[in-house]
Amino acid sequence: MQVTMCPERATMEHVTSRWGVLVLQALSDGEAWRFSELRRELQLASEKMLTQTLRTLERDGFVHREVHPVIPPHVDYTLTPLGKGAAGHLVALASWIGANQAEVTQAQESYDGS
């Protein structure tokens, strides 16, 4: 039996992907970010992966891309209201993980020791 992918699952994968989470967290400060600023912030993301992630999040309605008609081209990325909602949940989850990391580490060490 083949399991088909529902739209919610695809969206979940976009938002919770390695780079999706980091892009949404970076943009959650409310400021407009240029591509080069995001690339510096995310350090390990390749240009191709960051471009792909931004396009996916823009297509899903989480990111707004604004092209300014100047030379050289200037493009800003910000969160949409939908993106702000998703980012708020991700930031809360990251905060919870930080507050509980000692307990997680202890559980891992206990598991690895058995």
TrEMBL record:
A Pfam family hit: HxlR
Gene3D superfamilies in the cross-refs: Winged helix-like DNA-binding domain superfamily/Winged helix DNA-binding domain (1.10.10.10)
Domain HTH hxlR-type: start-end pairs: 6-105
Keywords, in A-Z order: DNA-binding, Transcription, Transcription regulation
Protein name, UniProt field: Transcriptional regulator
Organism of this sequence: Lentzea pudingi
Lineage, opening ranks: Bacteria, Bacillati, Actinomycetota, Actinomycetes, Pseudonocardiales
